[in-house]
């Protein structure tokens, strides 16, 4: 395994950024074991109450999720974590994760992003040459950090040499695409509906990335009150497809 990490480290030193993009695509492949397919972050509550029952409903939900949840919450955390990782300011990064945890009022959603982050670490560490990821994994193991996915993702992106915009954009895109795939299964809808929704959301994601880049921790807020309530209610559903 040590040799494998050294080989990848040497490879990254000589290839251009376009090749490195393949590594980024790899972690967003459906075969990469992060467990995002098991989480709806409260969306299942809306589906079971028939508030999301057709393609247009799912599209509207995802638009709100991007504009009200990702932009003012996760994307800001990704941006701040990215900058702190560049500075290797681990103490501040732990503080940032604590703030992020406090923003996630519903325990199911908070635990879900922890699960995804820890699973991501478990999947990427065997093939990753980065000391920063191993350092953070040790912090998580020793209960000094929680393993929140937005933090882990930023650490990985910095070490891969991606810029801030690419990092925020791919995080937002992958977050909403996971929700769409899960919504298609739960409603259910056809695969073409999912393709159409993603296609319609791409321009919005681009606009919201630009907006998120301009924000700081002072803008951090939780606008998704309905989603938080839905996440709290989720554990009391009679039957569930998803953990959150």
UniProtKB/TrEMBL annotation:
GO molecular function: nickel cation binding
Subcellular location: Cytoplasm
Keyword check for Chaperone: yes
Keyword Repressor: no
One cellular-component annotation, GO: cytoplasm
Pfam families for this protein: UreF
Keywords tagged on the record: Chaperone, Cytoplasm, Nickel insertion
Subunit structure, interactors included: UreD, UreF and UreG form a complex that acts as a GTP-hydrolysis-dependent molecular chaperone, activating the urease apoprotein by helping to assemble the nickel containing metallocenter of UreC. The UreE protein probably delivers the nickel.
Family as reported in the entry's similarity comment: Belongs to the UreF family.
Role noted for this protein: Required for maturation of urease via the functional incorporation of the urease nickel metallocenter.
UniProt-recorded name of the protein: Urease accessory protein UreF
The organism of origin for this protein: Niallia nealsonii
């Amino acid at each position: 395994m040590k040799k494998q990490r050294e080989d990848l480290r040497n490879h990254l030193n000589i290839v251009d950024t376009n090749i490195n993009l393949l590594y980024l695509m790899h972690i967003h492949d459906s075969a990469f074991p992060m467990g995002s397919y098991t989480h709806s972050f409260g969306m299942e509550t809306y589906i079971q109450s028939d508030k999301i029952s057709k393609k247009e409903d799912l599209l509207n939900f995802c638009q709100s999720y991007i504009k009200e949840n990702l932009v003012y919450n996760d994307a800001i955390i990704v941006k701040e974590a990215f900058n702190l990782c560049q500075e290797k300011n681990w103490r501040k990064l732990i503080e940032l994760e604590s703030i992020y945890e406090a923003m996630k009022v519903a325990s199911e959603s908070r635990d879900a992003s922890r699960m995804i982050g820890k699973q991501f670490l478990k999947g990427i560490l065997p093939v990753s040459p980065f000391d920063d990821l191993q350092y953070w994994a040790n912090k998580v193991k020793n209960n000094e950090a929680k393993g929140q996915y937005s933090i882990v993702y930023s650490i990985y992106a910095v070490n891969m040499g991606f810029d801030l915009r690419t990092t925020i954009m791919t995080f937002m895109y992958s977050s909403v695409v996971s929700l769409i795939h899960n919504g298609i299964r739960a409603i259910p809808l056809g695969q073409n509906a999912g393709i159409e929704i993603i296609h319609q959301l791409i321009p919005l994601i681009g606009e919201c990335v630009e907006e998120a880049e301009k924000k700081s921790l002072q803008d951090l807020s939780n606008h998704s009150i309905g989603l938080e309530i839905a996440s709290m209610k989720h554990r009391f559903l009679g039957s569930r497809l998803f953990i959150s």
